[in-house]
Specification:
The protein is mostly helical. It has 7 helices and 6 strands; from the N terminus they run αββββββαααααα. The strands form 3 sheets. The chain has a two-stranded parallel ribbon with strand order 1-4. A two-stranded antiparallel ribbon has the order 2-3. Strand 2 and strand 3 form a beta hairpin. The radius of gyration is 22 Å and the shape is elongated.
Length: 181
């Protein structure tokens, strides 16, 4: 299944022709391999600072393609401005759920087990596709949730600095993970 086709066109005058050529080639490939392209689920996103209206001009088998403000590709929401706001807000909710799980476990298990749950449940979700969204303006939201988790693991008050606890426990901050990966 093809999820993403990326066209890089430097000249705005040839965008429509290049896109239509790619669409025609995809449609021919699907036909040659006895596959059906679902036109209702096929859309496009334009990553451009200038407005470029291609709606009703890109056609697949007689049906117009719809321009989308954002698309979900392999679990990552990509918007036309590359701000990743939708992805970060959704991730923040998932990570908040992981933090709640840690809080529920805090009185039942040891600190070592809490760190293992953190790495399995929180850290793995946080690091997924961090190369794309880690430098976004809203990424500080994720860092705040990470600090809340760290305070939960070590039983810290909300106003206590986490800096030494990140260092002493060996847990990488969200920013460090972005730089590392």
């Amino acid at each position: 299944m093809i999820q993403l086709v990326l066209l890089v066109v430097m000249n705005c005058n040839v965008v429509e022709a290049q896109c239509q050529l790619a669409i025609t080639q995809l449609s021919n490939w699907f036909s040659a391999n006895r596959l059906i392209l679902n036109v209702n689920k096929t859309n496009f996103v334009v990553f451009n600072r200038r407005s470029l209206d291609l709606t009703d001009r890109l056609v697949i088998d007689g049906s117009s393609m719809v321009e989308a403000a954002e698309v979900k590709v392999l679990g990552l929401f990509i918007d036309s401005a590359l701000k990743y706001e939708t992805h970060i807000l959704g991730l923040s909710k998932k990570l908040g759920s992981a933090c709640y799980s840690l809080r529920c476990l805090r009185d039942l298990v040891s600190e070592r087990i809490l760190k293992q749950v953190y790495y399995g449940y929180f850290h793995s979700k946080m690091n997924y596709a961090i190369q794309f969204w880690g430098n976004a303006t809203m990424s500080d939201t994720i860092f705040r949730v990470q600090k809340r988790c760290l305070r939960t693991i070590f039983g810290l008050a909300p106003t206590v600095s986490c800096r030494n606890y990140f260092r002493d426990s060996g847990i990488m901050t969200m920013i460090s993970c972005y730089i590392y990966y």
